[in-house]
Design goal:
rod-shaped; 2 helices; alpha+beta; single chain; 135 residues
């Protein structure tokens, strides 16, 4: 009977010690973590118009996807499609579909394989929206 009580005491003491260690680590985590702040990511978006003029925009955001930022800032508009927004207008210029014009999205001058709504963003990235002619 006494060994059973000793084993129970050891288990209870071990559980209390484990809970104390967990509480300590949780406290350290809560005081040292960085809060996500609005504007925690900064991205640059360059718009290359049909006449080859260039406008550069810099946005601070806590959004996760490029399409969200572009829509929030009012830089783009378009039609909803199977893969998110199909961008038709950027920075006030609308692509003319009858002339096979469309907005090409690139990241650091490399074409993306995703739509703006499916493109995750990270701090410091640069994107380009170029009015392109021809499919």
């Amino acid at each position: 009977m006494k060994t059973e009580q000793k084993n129970t005491k050891k288990i209870i003491i071990s559980l209390i010690a484990l809970l104390a260690v967990i509480a300590l680590f949780f406290g350290i985590y809560r005081f040292t973590r960085q809060d996500v702040l609005k504007g925690s990511k900064t991205i640059t978006v360059e718009v290359i118009h049909k006449d080859a003029s260039l406008n550069t925009f810099e946005y601070g955001t806590d959004r996760e996807y490029l399409g969200e930022v572009l829509a929030d800032e009012g830089l783009v508009s378009g039609e909803e499609g199977a893969y998110g927004m199909f961008i038709t207008t950027v920075d006030g210029e609308t692509a003319d579909e009858s002339n096979q014009e469309w907005w090409c999205i690139t990241k650091d001058n490399e074409k993306l394989g995703t739509s703006a709504d499916q493109t995750p963003i990270a701090d410091g990235e640069k994107y380009e929206l170029t009015l392109t002619i021809g499919y």
